[in-house]
Automatic annotation (TrEMBL):
Record-linked Pfam families: Acyl_transf_3
InterPro entries: Acyl_transf_3_dom
GO MF terms, alphabetically ordered: acyltransferase activity, transferring groups other than amino-acyl groups
This protein's name: Putative acyltransferase
Ranges where the Acyltransferase domain occurs: 9-175
Assigned keywords, A-Z: Acyltransferase, Membrane, Transferase, Transmembrane, Transmembrane helix
Segments of this protein annotated with the region Disordered: 192-213
Species whose genome carries this gene: Singulisphaera acidiphila (strain ATCC BAA-1392 / DSM 18658 / VKM B-2454 / MOB10)
Domain of life assignment: Bacteria
TM region(s), chain numbering: 33-55, 64-82, 88-106, 118-135, 155-181
Keyword Ribosomal protein: no
């Protein structure tokens, strides 16, 4: 039986898909309720839920999940090849689906991959990834616009100047935000309580001492 959260997620996802298909079919833009997270970006979030369910709740059907993600990746890429004008519209969805496919394929190798040195840096960032998610947007927007207004434009200028500066600031400030705010709300594992042995009566101690003589 489908649970209420799964049913709600399915209905919202189908509703977003239907509105987008309807808008493309009849030539009008579907309603994009910014701030409510049920615009097109919900579909990328739904792929994350799909990966989580495939790994933790439907592990026996992981192969079918991989096939489905591969099929979606193929269809999205094929649509952009056949109709290049859809590239701007479908690119973000293609990235999310391909990334979901990689997560499903590489999941059995999580242990060996986590021991690789290049991946350990990602593990460190993962500790405060939610703080990074909250902090990075205003930093990138503010400094990106500032550099743009001062003539730092173009692909290589962005890659060599803007990206390193904004990435470094985002990491530093998000780590600070983690230590000051986020870590105070994390659920820490309770320390194992050592069960203290009940005291032995004096009479039993005397009997044990006499028996040992």
């Amino acid at each position: 039986m489908v649970s209420y959260p799964a049913g709600a997620i399915t209905l919202i996802t189908l509703g977003v898909l239907f509105s987008k298909v309807l808008g493309k079919t009849f030539g009008f833009s579907p309603i994009r309720p910014y701030g409510l997270f049920i615009d097109g970006s919900w579909l990328m979030f739904a792929m994350g839920i799909f990966v989580f369910c495939a790994i933790h709740h439907r592990s026996e059907k992981r192969r079918w999940s991989i096939r489905l993600a591969f099929l979606l990746s193929f269809l999205l890429i094929a649509a952009q090849v056949v109709r290049p004008q859809l590239h701007h519209y479908l690119f973000a969805y293609s990235v999310s689906v391909i990334f979901s496919l990689l997560l499903l394929v590489l999941h059995p190798y999580d242990g060996p991959l986590s021991n690789c040195r290049p991946v350990r840096m990602l593990s460190w960032v993962g500790e405060f990834s939610y703080s990074l998610y909250l902090v990075h947007s205003p930093i990138t927007e503010l400094f990106g616009r500032w550099f743009w207004m001062h003539g730092v434009r173009g692909l290589w200028s962005y890659v060599l100047i803007v990206l390193p500066i904004t990435a470094t600031l985002s990491l530093v400030l998000s780590r600070l935000f983690f230590w000051l705010v986020e870590r105070r709300f994390l659920n820490r594992p309770e320390k194992a309580k050592c069960s203290s042995s009940s005291p032995i009566p004096v009479g039993e101690l005397a009997e044990q001492g006499q028996s040992g003589i």
